[in-house]
Design brief:
The chain has about 240 residues and is α/β, with parallel strands linked by helices. It is built from ten helices and eight strands.
Length: about 240
């Protein structure tokens, strides 16, 4: 298990983070809706929220100022699309996310910066306006493999996520969370907080992810995406 060095990270130990996101064109794709879902999730016991898009992040940060918030900005749906550049990362932090989730793979970033350079700028509170007066951001590196995780840790990421497991071509997409990947990363990086994310659809799977070495567990679809949940039941009938 990891040894966090920041109170926000420590507050997430062994706890649930709920991802509140809706896809483009869906009825729930609205900041007010996502903020309400986030509030309901916290009332249900969530210790943190993960949210996408500047408007959603800003409103959730306003409504839940004391709840750890992981923010990201999706640009497209292929390649490096999770907070792909330093510009996007700065905007996510400025919108109110204390933890900025970025693509943490070894793939080339669209702005040409290295992962280490992006992390360093966020840690320095670099606003892009020639100063470093902003509050430093914590950085969550969304990874897809053990090698991604090792590289992200070397780059200075504060947290490592398994968000991209099965989506980068490095590993097959598992039916459920990639527990093997979680175990392998936890064994190699015991002192870096590991966040389990991706295809965690039941409480039993969440527990298994924690037991595999996760510092905290992110659940999204199974809690906050009624279209998919309805589809599961409809298909069963």
């Amino acid at each position: 298990m990891s040894t966090p060095t920041h109170p926000v990270i420590d507050a997430l130990r062994g706890r649930l983070i709920v991802s509140c996101q809706a896809y483009p064109g869906e009825p729930m794709r609205h900041p007010e809706t996502m903020a309400q879902i986030a509030q309901a999730a916290v009332e249900g016991g969530a210790a943190g929220i993960r949210a996408q898009g500047l408007a959603d992040i800003a409103l959730i940060a306003e409504r839940l100022p004391d709840v750890p918030l992981i923010g990201l900005w999706k640009v497209g749906a292929d390649g490096v699309f999770i907070t792909p550049t330093l510009r996007h990362a700065r905007a996510v932090h400025a919108a109110g996310a204390g933890i900025v989730a970025i693509d943490g793979t070894r793939r080339t970033r669209p702005d040409g910066l290295t992962l280490a350079g992006t992390v360093a700028a966020l840690h320095a509170g670099d606003t892009g306006a020639g100063d470093t007066g902003a509050e430093p951001a914590l950085v969550m590196a969304d990874c897809g493999s053990v090698d991604d995780a090792l590289a992200a840790a070397d780059a200075g990421a504060d947290l490592i996520g398994t968000t991209l497991a099965g989506y980068t071509g490095d590993r097959p997409k598992t039916d459920g969370p990639d527990l093997d990947l979680l175990t392998r990363i936890a064994d190699r990086l015991p002192d870096v907080p590991l966040i389990a994310e991706g295809r965690i659809h039941t409480p039993a799977q969440a527990t298994a992810a924690r037991d595999a070495g996760a510092h905290a567990v992110v659940v999204g679809t199974a809690i906050t995406h009624p279209t998919t949940i309805t589809g599961w039941f409809a298909a069963a009938l």
